[in-house]
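Submission sheet (multi-component)
Chains listed below:
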Amino acid sequence: AQRVTQPEKLLSVFKGAPVELKCNYSYSGSPELFWYVQYSRQRLQLLLRHISRESIKGFTADLNKGETSFHLKKPFAQEEDSAMYYCALSPAAGGTSYGKLTFGQGTILTVHP
Amino acid sequence: NAGVTQTPKFQVLKTGQSMTLQCAQDMNHNSMYWYRQDPGMGLRLIYYSASEGTTDKGEVPNGYNVSRLNKREFSLRLESAAPSQTSVYFCASSGQGKETQYFGPGTRLLVL
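Outcome: structure written.
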């Protein structure tokens, strides 16, 4: 069975400080990993996915298959980064379960001025 | 282009009552999903539909039924609501590649 764990329910940092939101997963195979974000009074939306290897709003995430982790990082946090962040896993493309996401418990990030 | 829409936004039910949550998307997506969001539990998949005419159970399907009415619409029905079904319900859809799911605004359901 696949599982996604976000060990921190709450994370607080000051503006300009580095931030790292942790995500660990368990899955037998090669999954696809995603970070979704929900800003206050907005819809849940995709932030980034590991396959695209891009930086969105200054955030990056590297898939570490050895440690089965997909931590989200930003070198200098901004107040507008305050939101709920979810890590999510999908079985690999090509299978019948591709696209069925398993979400972590979520981490509420608060960036203080 | 409204994306994914959900009705109602908020609903209060008594235990045993039934109701249907509606979801529609205007992005011509094949796949649609229903999730529930509970504190400390994240989002959990209830049911999904890979294409029009097909539905399949997710992680927490008990107490729910779904209908993929056509390509645009995917409804979730609670036949006999229970307090444990108090939650925020999200509908989502994804296109051919399924890489990105687009979410609706959610329905807050309170079962007394």
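Remark: The mean pLDDT of chain B is 94.
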